[in-house]
Specification:
By secondary structure, the protein is α/β, with parallel strands linked by helices. The chain is built from eight helices and 13 strands. It has a nine-stranded mixed sheet, sandwiched between helices. A two-stranded antiparallel ribbon has the order 2-9. Strands 10-11 form a two-stranded antiparallel ribbon. Helix 4 (86-92) links the parallel strand 3 and strand 4 (116-120). One of its GO terms (biological process) is riboflavin biosynthetic process. Its EC number is 1.1.1.302. Keywords: NADP, Oxidoreductase, Riboflavin biosynthesis.
Length: 278
């Protein structure tokens, strides 16, 4: 890989022990119940005090501090896969690997502890190239080759498919409903389960987060971990605000967390909880 290799990160045991109850359980290789249903889903993101992810669409905005950044990589080490939407892949050119000390490429041989990067791209928007960070990291054995999940109706250019395959990546196809051109989350998770993914950490962007928090999808989420930074970004940014939920003629809350825990990390605070599915 060209350029300087970024250093390994450490996450202290004390906050890790507080966050561990919200992470995927350890599944044995002989267990099939999880594969038959869906992966364990952790939704995680960082927001400002006014619930914004960034200053404006497509603008990278640093919110969390170094302690929270290390936590993100610790979370990645505990999941089979990291998932983002095509918009985030296009705007950020993310690395989508894990830099916790002791995982593959950062103190260990092979790819042990490295999650599988997954990009949801129904319409082939992400122009992945040999210069994409995720491809370079996979080529240098500091990350896994990415999977693209696209619709069965979409065609992926042959050169893009070959590029993914050279670093161990793949293109996966998922069905779309006639009344909805996008791929449903239930279908996405079923495809991943079929491929043996037992846990997935969903990191964004805004459209993905709001869609998963909306009525009908929140029940698919098992755990939510939110880093809250001590800053207001102001109007015009990308906000976490899912669609409303209506019962009869009345608006009701979209959802609520239970088993809540607040974990201070540097200047940030991390909110952990499980969606109340009752």
């Amino acid at each position: 890989m060209s350029g300087q290799v970024r250093e390994a990160l450490r996450f202290p045991a004390s906050p890790a022990q507080q966050i561990d109850p919200y992470l995927p359980p350890s599944f044995t290789s002989t267990s099939t119940s999880q594969t038959e249903s869906k992966p364990f889903v952790t939704l995680t993101f960082a927001t400002s005090l006014d619930s914004h992810l960034s200053l404006a669409p497509g603008v990278q905005t640093v919110l969390s501090g170094p302690e929270s950044k290390a936590m993100t990589h610790y979370l990645r080490s505990k999941h089979d896969a990291i998932l983002i939407g095509a918009g985030t892949a296009v705007a950020d050119d993310p690395s989508l690997n894990c830099r916790i000390e002791g995982v593959g490429g950062y103190g260990a041989e092979g790819l042990s502890g490295q999650p599988r990067p997954i990009v949801i791209d129904p319409n082939g928007r992400w122009n992945v190239t040999p210069e994409s960070k995720v491809i370079k990291l996979a080529g240098s054995q500091r990350g896994r080759g990415p999977w693209i999940v696209t619709s069965k109706e979409s065609s992926i250019a042959e050169e893009k498919r070959k590029l993914l395959e050279t670093v161990g990546g793949r293109v996966l196809k998922a069905s779309t409903a006639a009344e909805r051109p996008s791929i449903s989350w239930a279908n996405i998770l079923q495809v991943l389960a079929t491929e043996g993914v037992k846990s997935v950490m969903i990191e964004g962007g805004g459209a993905v987060i709001n869609d998963l928090l909306s009525p009908g999808n929140l029940e698919l989420v098992d755990s939510i971990i939110v880093t809250i930074a001590p800053v207001w970004l102001g109007k015009g940014g990308v906000q976490v605000c899912p669609d409303e939920r209506v019962e009869g003629v009345n608006r009701v809350p979209v959802g609520r967390l239970e088993d809540v825990r607040w974990v201070p990390l540097g200047d940030d605070v991390v909110l952990c909880g499980h969606p109340n599915k009752s």
